Structure formats: structure tokens, C-alpha cells
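hey all, quick one before standup. I had two proteins in the batch that finished overnight and I want to keep them in one place so we stop losing track of which output belongs to which input. First protein below, input sequence then C-alpha cells straight from the run.
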Amino acid sequence: MSELIGDPESATTDSAADAPTPGPAAALDVDRVSFGYPGRRVLDRVSLRVRPGEFVALVGLNGCGKSTLLRLAAGVLRPESGRVSVDGADMARTSRREAARKVALLHQAAPAVPGLTVRQLVRQGRYAARGPLGMLRVGDDEVTVRAMRDVGVDAWADRPVDALSGGERQRVRLALALAQDTPVLLLDEPTTYLDLRHQLEVLQLVGRLRDERRLTVLMVLHDLDLAARFAERLVALRDGHVAAEGPPDSVVTPGLLREVFGIEGRVGRDPERGWPVCYPDRPLRLP
């Protein structure tokens, strides 16, 4: 039987949002960032620092600002206030092409591009580095070849992307992100629509590539068990604030399930590896 983890009150406080976590220089620094869409504030003075080489997972309910935070980190959106910087560069003042040299963003879903082969799609990741004229050159550069090889899709290079399975397409999209050759990788729900086998395959692949390429990874995951298993640190968002952050062992508690996810449940440990495992019992009525 799994050992149940306690419920310290400090696990779900909003104090983490008040100031960036102290420590060494950050690869990604979100400093008191606020952002909203018409009629709705999504993020309110959120601060987050991701150290070089760290693997961090963003968790929380739908609409809490996880995907918005990724788009701000990638320079796709600009904050209303506060600052997002990557390797010291202010992303709001960085051109889209320069931002694409610093950060690769794998969106939750991408429209299909009929007729493109795996090779042709992955090659699109080289646009920021090669420019429009460079993209006219025939043949793959070394970075494209390595991206396909590292993700294990090089054998499919000349197959149409729309003929692949969901799991295979997700690997190709990961190769597309790697082809940008950036030090920071942002993943928005990389396991969406995948079965359990392919979820594990993709997350293990991300972990291996992080180690081999010394990448900094910030990933949005809905599955709290998978986030606790693969990430070094969890950041839980609630109502536009950081509700809890830290190692999975200290963050994943019954209090987190109640305050952030709106469910009553228990938390145990995997008997062999020791990571937290959630046992949800019933949903709570949200205010």
C-alpha cells in the first residue's frame, strides 16, 4: 500500500507570487507579470524563475493562465505590466525572429499542413536561423538532421505528416521545435490526445533530450501524476496567481488537490520510485 503524504498548510499559499524565487541566474525570468483578455484578467503579478537546465511543469485548472504564461515566455504575447526575460533579454522588446532563436514553443495543437513530408515540416524550424533566403536552399542542414535523429523520426523523413498516427505526429512536432536549436523549450500539453503508452514515450523523450542537450524545459501538463513523475519542480496556478511551487514531494498534497484543483482526495507515494501519486475522491463545489 502506498504511503499517504501529509497536508501542510504552507503548500498552497499565494506568497510565491510576491517575488521571484531567489537563486542563481535564470534562463527564464517572469517578474511580476500581469496579462488579460477583454473582460478577464488571466495573470496577476506572477513571478517565476526557471534555472538553466531545469525541468519545470505548470499545473492547474483550465483557464488559470498556464498556456498564456507560455506564450508570454515565448514572446508571442506581451505583458500588460512586469517583464519576461530569457537569458537576460526582454522578450517584449525582442523581435519575433530573435525570440525564436531563444525559445521554441510547442503549441498544444497545430493545424495540419496537407502534403508536407516529415522532412519539410521539421525544416520549417530553421527559419529563424536561416532566414527566407536560406530556406530556399536544397537539402537539410545538420541541425535538422540531428533533430529528426534525436526524436527518432529520421526513418519517416519522406512520409507525409498527415499519414502518421497521433503519437508519431507529436514526435515530429517535437523535432520541429528542436530544429529551432534554442536553449529553452516550452511545451504546451505535449501529451494531449495521446494514449497512455505514447504519453509516457513523449515525456521520457523530453527528459532524455533535456539531459542530452542541456535544455531548459517549461511544460504545461493537465495530468498531475505525470507532472509529479517527470518534472523536478511544479508550479501550480490558481486564479492568475502562483498558488504553490517547489519539488513534487512538497507541492502535491491533499491541500493542493482541494485549493487548486477543487477536488477532495488523497496523495500517496509510488512504492518503488517514491514520486507522489494522487487518488481523487470527489469534486468540490467551486466558489
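OK second protein, same deal, sequence then C-alpha cells:
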Amino acid sequence: MPAPHYGGMNPSHPTPLARMVALLALALAASLGHAADTTAASQMQRWSDVSGQPVSAERGRVFFNSRHGGEWSCASCHGNPPTTATRHASTGKTIAPLAPAFNPERFTDTAKVDKWFRRNCNDVLQRECTAVEKADVLAWLLQFDAKKPGQAAKDKP
């Protein structure tokens, strides 16, 4: 028995427009999936590979909490420990937790990671951070565990 016709359209054979809409929906879904193109651990490894040096969480802790000759440190805006929402030191804008265990979206989009390291390093250091500085900070940030809230006290300088 032939398929019924509905105003000239056969539901088992989508129109070119319906196919185009379906393809666009798939493309959009795929592009949204690429927003999280990496992990914090992968970012740390990327910078460690570029620097050619092993990472040091302790160097990262010291770097994060130091003022580097200026008014601000990373902790000025991200807090110490960087496990809760804070406010930007000059704008007052809310900043989500920096430690990946407390904010799973952190360091998952390479373009955003590069953008924010560039901006924030320029604010704190008046230069871009080196690859080893980025790797070390991430090594320290990756040590925070949302299941161990008591760890914060030992991380204060």
C-alpha cells in the first residue's frame, strides 16, 4: 500500500529544508560539544611539555599567592584557597571558583584558558605567564579535592 500524501509531502522522505534543519541542528550540537575540548590536567601537561620542565605544585602555590612586585596576586581575585566564588579586586564582578574540583568547567576550553591566562597574567605580572608558571599553578589547583574541605587551611601561606 503506498504511503499517504499530506499536501504533497511524504513523511518518510523529508524535504530538502527538513534535511537542512536537521543537519544544522547536528552541527550546532557538535559545536557545543567542542566548547569543552580539554581538561585541566591536559592543559597542565601541555604547558609542562612546552616548558620542558617538570611541574611543581609548591612553586604554583607560591606563585599564585605572591604579588610579583605589584598590588595584586592571583589570590587577590581568586581567593586563597581558590575553592569558592569570589569578587574581582577592582570590578567587584563575581568570579566562580578557580580550582577544577570546585568548578568542573574550569580549564576545559583551550581558547578561554589562553585568553584568561593572558589577561590575568598581564594584570598581575605586567607580562604573560611562562609555560612553567601556568603548569605549576595548575598542578597546585589540581591538588584541591572537593571531598576534603579541611585541606584549605594548610594551603594558606
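Flagging for whoever picks this up: The first helix runs from residue 16 to 33. The chain has one domain: 40-155.
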